[in-house]
Amino acid sequence: MSVSVKLSAGSNFPSIRANTLDGNTITLGRAYHEAIWQLVVIYRGQHCPLCTKYLNQLEGYKTRLQKIGLDIVAISADSKAQLEAHKERLTTSFPIAYGLTQEQMQQLGLYISIPRSEQETDHDFAEPGLFVVNRVGVIQVIDISNNPFCRPELEALVSGLEWISDPDNDYPIRGTLAY
User: Fold this and answer.
1) For the whole prediction, is pTM greater than 0.70?
2) Which residues form the Thioredoxin domain (predicted)?
3) Rounded average pLDDT over 68-74
4) Of 58, 94, 102, 106, whose CB count within 10 A is highest?
5) At what angle do helices 49-59 and 154-164 cross, to 10 degrees?
6) Domains of the chain
C-alpha cells in the first residue's frame, strides 16, 4: 500500500507550468485574461471517452464561468501528439495542456493508474481531478476521484461556483481540516 498526500482546501495551489498545443506555457492555478479564479481540470487522456464527453460538456458552461471571473484550463499526462489526435474529438475553446508528469500528479494528490494495455495508452495517467483556485492562489474547491465515473455534475458545480464567488454570500472555504 502506498502513501498518498492530498492537498487541503485553503492551502496554496502548487506552481505547475505546462505547455499547450499553440506553443504557450501556462501556469495552473493562476487565472489569465480578465479572470480572477481558475478551474483546473485534470483528465485521464485521449483514451478515455468519458473525459472527452466531460470536457466537451464543460465547454457549454464556459460563458457562465467567465461571467463570474473564472477561467478554465485542462491537462493530462498525454504527449503533444496524443493531445493533437484528441483535439479532433474535442469541441473545446479553453486551453488544454499536455505532459503532466507523475511527480506533478503526486504533488496534486491525484490517483494514478497504470494502463491496462498499450491499446489504452503508453504511460501512467492521472485519474480525474478538479481544483478551483481563487484570486490569491488558494484552493477553494477540490474534487479527486480514483475512476472516471465519479466527477462533479457540471450544472451543480457551476451553480455552486456562481454562489460562492458572490462576495455578498461571504462563503468560506470548506473542508480545511484534512488529515
Assistant:
1) yes
2) 7-163
3) 95
4) 58
5) 40
6) 16-166 (3.40.30.10)
